[in-house]
Design goal:
The chain contains 16 helices and twelve strands. By secondary structure, the protein is α/β, with parallel strands linked by helices. The chain has two domains: 146 residues, Aspartate Aminotransferase, domain 1, CATH 3.90.1150.10; 234 residues, Type I PLP-dependent aspartate aminotransferase-like (Major domain) (Aspartate Aminotransferase, domain 2, 3-Layer(aba) Sandwich). Strands 2-8-7-6-5-3-4 form a seven-stranded mixed beta sheet, with helices on both faces. Strand 6, helix 8 and strand 7 form a beta-alpha-beta unit. The relative contact order is 0.17. The model has no long low-confidence stretch (mean pLDDT 96).
């Protein structure tokens, strides 16, 4: 395959990930990053430092405890900055599913029978499963459906579902099966024009450069840190004034502490502190890039260069898949319009094909990936599933070529 000049040096990028030095992983190409990425050395360094030096209860009067609390506070600040937000927006929970579950419990106390919410069938289960349970208390569920052929969401269809009964719309910035990048800023504006809240699932988008959430203007934006080179933490950014208006889901004595009200079972303190390493990693990526003509902020430059790197790597694979008549490519064939999370429907099950790729030292996923409703909306059997090929900025052209050859041998 032919690749234009990549903006990031592959060797320098891979040097930021200790996994590539592990003997057990040598020679294996990793194409299931949508399920969880390798961890940046910056995150591992901060995690180890915390466990070795400050694994104590934070925010007490003695030095180790104060250092531990400071490390956690810095993580809130750094992740907020990476998202273009003040630290008061940031909440860390055990996972995205746990975060949305707690949010759904808070909304259950805030909504009334007769209220309506809008969900999509393009989302991961985490951004609609718990919301759907609100129907038990009389909340109306309206579904914004994907096109059964293109798998895309049409904003015009959303406008037809909105009225003054709708309290919020939950939608994905990018689907973990479809891969298309939804116009989140435009959609949030449509939602706000109707007087509703915008809840955006960024789990599939965030690994490809953390977005400027302040520009998108979402009211709630969440993602999973273990898919963005970090620990197993769920990150939830919530507009502070709205977070304060939700019923407290934590201990009663923490009612006036914004960080604790919506994360009653927060993650390990060391993992919170290690989240600063995700910001460190993005700054390191920006440092490997040539100066941008449009971006002065390191986090925005990292987003720009990661997207450019992945788009170049993605297009040859999309072209090869699009040219075949024995696979169904889900989502756009233009790399500019999508994320490198590429699902294909095959005659064999997704799981079966992923098992056959193992002999080529290709690590890929097969199944429905908690997107049963998405597959049903496309006329596909969730039990049969799809093969999902997902990668990030540390993937190399040689690995893309190996994947294409392996697929050609197995199809």
């Amino acid at each position: 395959m032919t690749y234009t000049s990549l903006p990031l040096d592959r060797n320098k990028v891979r040097a930021l990930f200790p996994a590539f030095e592990d003997p057990s992983l040598k020679g294996h190409a990793f194409f299931e990053n949508a399920g969880g990425s390798y961890t940046s050395k910056f995150v591992l360094d901060r995690l180890e430092s915390y466990y070795r030096q400050t694994k104590v209860q934070p925010y007490s009067a003695y030095p180790a405890s104060m250092t531990a609390g400071d490390a956690m506070d810095i993580a809130y600040q750094r992740i907020g900055a990476a998202l273009g937000l003040d630290e008061s927006w940031i909440h860390f929970g055990p996972s995205t599913s746990a975060n949305t579950y707690v949010l759904s419990q808070a909304f259950a106390q805030k909504l009334s029978a007769g209220d309506a919410i809008i969900l999509t069938n393009q989302d991961h289960e985490a951004n609609h499963g718990f919301w759907r349970r609100l129907e038990r208390m009389g909340v109306q569920i309206r579904q914004w459906n994907i096109d059964p052929d293109t798998a895309l969401l049409d904003p015009n269809d959303l406008e037809n579902l909105l009225d003054d009964k709708v309290k919020f719309v939950a939608f994905p910035h990018g689907s973990n099966i479809v891969g298309a990048i939804n116009p989140a800023k435009q959609i949030c504006q449509i939602i706000h024009n109707a007087g509703a809240l915008a809840i955006v699932d960024g789990v599939s988008y965030a690994p490809h450069g953390l977005p400027d959430v302040s520009d998108i203007n979402a009211d709630i934006y969440f993602f999973s840190a273990y898919k963005t080179f970090g620990p197993h933490v769920g990150v939830m950014a919530i507009r502070p004034e709205f977070a304060a208006s939700l019923p407290n889901q934590g201990h009663h004595f923490n009612d006036n502490k914004l960080r604790y009200r919506l994360t009653p079972a927060g993650p390990d303190h060391a993992q919170i502190a290690a989240m600063s390493g995700v910001a460190d990693h993005l700054e390191a990526i920006a440092g490997l890039a040539e100066k941008s003509q449009t971006q002065n902020n390191a986090f925005r430059l990292a987003h720009e260069v990661i997207r450019a790197q992945e788009t170049i790597l993605m297009q040859p694979l999309l072209d090869w898949l699009s040219a075949r008549n024995d696979v169904r490519l889900i989502g756009p064939s233009n790399a500019e319009l999508r994320l490198p999370t590429i699902a294909i429907a095959l005659k064999s099950s997704g799981r079966e094909m992923s098992e056959r790729l193992v002999k080529h030292n290709i690590m890929a996923g097969g199944g429905n990936f908690y997107g049963q409703r998405t597959l049903e909306g496309l006329g596909l059997d969730p039990e049969h599933g799809v093969l999902r090929l997902s990668f990030v900025h540390y993937t190399t052209p040689e690995e893309i070529d190996r994947l294409i050859k392996a697929l050609g041998d197995e199809l």
